[in-house]
């Protein structure tokens, strides 16, 4: 009986370890910073204990997680502050919170007194602007400044040696993503992948994504996504991956899956462009492994109990025959 109890406890503890290790997702790492632009600081600095930009960011962050997109305006003394924050469609709440917090901390630490800030992280975008209420400043100037901000970064991996095949595939992928980004169901975001026959006559894939701030009109989104794609192809077309920012728009591609925090379904392309579920897919795989582990553990318990029951019956029969 003691042997039976100890065996059962051992198997139960093993089952618990299996399910805990597979069902509990690991903490998300910080998302990578893709672009940061700080304009010159405003001419008038307020020497006070209240930071209006921090207040603005707190308000944006508290709402963005639920809506995935929010704008907020506030005034402090002679300054009018406007902000925009969005998380990528399909990004899980935990990843959205982490991304929004990282963007806010970056602005507060690196651009605390700037009158125009835009920051792209892998998963979210934040835009802050300030103007003096008694100035003749044209609000459209800030809009143009955000549209003009641009930068790029390319993969530092070995140069792509298969441009004759990968080049047309990349162009087709980016054209498809650009065409889909303004669909109402995509909310200014489109991602996908494309397969092509590489130089070794085996399948290779390119993964891509484009995104624009949801405050833009469809025409503005189409224009700045097109500019981001032009920069991406010009600077990084011969590489294995890259990122290009043009104002409030972003274009990316890579030969490896790169979507931080996972993509559930929003913004998925059509046709041969498939959705990679990233972190969500990892959780689903964890659930499957947990259920499989639980099934195996239950089966082992059943086999062990059957064996012990048979052994007990045989022993009783032997004792009876001896008696």
Automatic annotation (TrEMBL):
PROSITE patterns named in the record: GNK2 (PS51473)
CDD domains: Gnk2-like
InterPro entries in UniProt: Cell2Cell_Antifungal, GNK2, GNK2_sf
Membrane topology (UniProt): Single-pass type I membrane protein
Pfam families: Stress-antifung
Superkingdom per UniProt: Eukaryota
Bilayer-spanning residue ranges: 288-309
One GO CC annotation: plasmodesma
Subcellular location: Cell junction, Plasmodesma; Cell membrane
Endpoints of the signal sequence: 1-21
Keywords of this entry: Cell junction, Disulfide bond, Host-virus interaction, Membrane, Repeat, Signal, Transmembrane, Transmembrane helix
Gnk2-homologous domain sequence ranges: 31-133, 148-258
Protein's UniProt keywords contain Repeat: yes
Family: Belongs to the cysteine-rich repeat secretory protein family. Plasmodesmata-located proteins (PDLD) subfamily.
Entry protein name: Gnk2-homologous domain-containing protein
Lineage, broadest ranks: Eukaryota, Viridiplantae, Streptophyta, Embryophyta, Tracheophyta
């Amino acid at each position: 009986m003691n042997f039976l109890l100890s065996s059962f406890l051992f198997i139960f503890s093993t089952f618990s370890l299996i399910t805990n290790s597979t069902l509990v997702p690991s903490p998300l790492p910080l998302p990578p910073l893709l672009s940061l632009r700080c304009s010159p600081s405003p001419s008038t600095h307020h020497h006070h204990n209240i930071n209006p930009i921090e207040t603005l960011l707190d308000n944006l962050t508290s709402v963005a997680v639920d809506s995935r997109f929010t704008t907020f305006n506030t005034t402090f003394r002679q300054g009018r502050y406007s902000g925009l924050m969005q998380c990528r469609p399909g990004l899980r709440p935990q990843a959205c919170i982490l991304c929004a917090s990282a963007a806010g901390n970056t602005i507060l630490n690196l651009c605390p007194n700037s009158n125009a800030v835009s920051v792209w992280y892998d998963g979210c975008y934040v835009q802050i602007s300030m103007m003096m209420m008694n100035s003749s400043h044209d609000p459209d100037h800030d809009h143009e400044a955000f549209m003009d901000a641009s930068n790029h970064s390319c993969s530092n991996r070995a140069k792509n040696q298969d441009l004759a095949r990968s080049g047309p595939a990349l162009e087709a992928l980016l054209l498809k993503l650009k065409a889909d980004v303004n669909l109402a169901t995509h909310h200014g975001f489109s991602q996908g992948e494309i397969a092509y026959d590489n130089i070794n006559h085996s399948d290779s894939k390119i993964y891509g994504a484009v995104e624009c701030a949801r405050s833009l009109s469809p025409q503005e989104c189409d224009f700045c996504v097109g500019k981001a794609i032009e920069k991406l192809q010009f600077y990084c077309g011969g590489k294995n991956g890259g990122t290009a920012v043009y104002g409030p728009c972003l274009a990316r591609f890579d030969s490896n899956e790169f979507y931080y925090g996972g993509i559930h379904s929003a913004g998925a392309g059509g046709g041969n462009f498939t959705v990679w579920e990233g972190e969500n897919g990892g959780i689903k795989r964890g659930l499957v492994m947990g259920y499989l582990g639980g099934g195996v553990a239950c089966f082992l318990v059943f086999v062990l109990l059957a064996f012990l029951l048979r052994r007990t019956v045989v022993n009783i029969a032997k004792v009876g025959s001896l008696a």
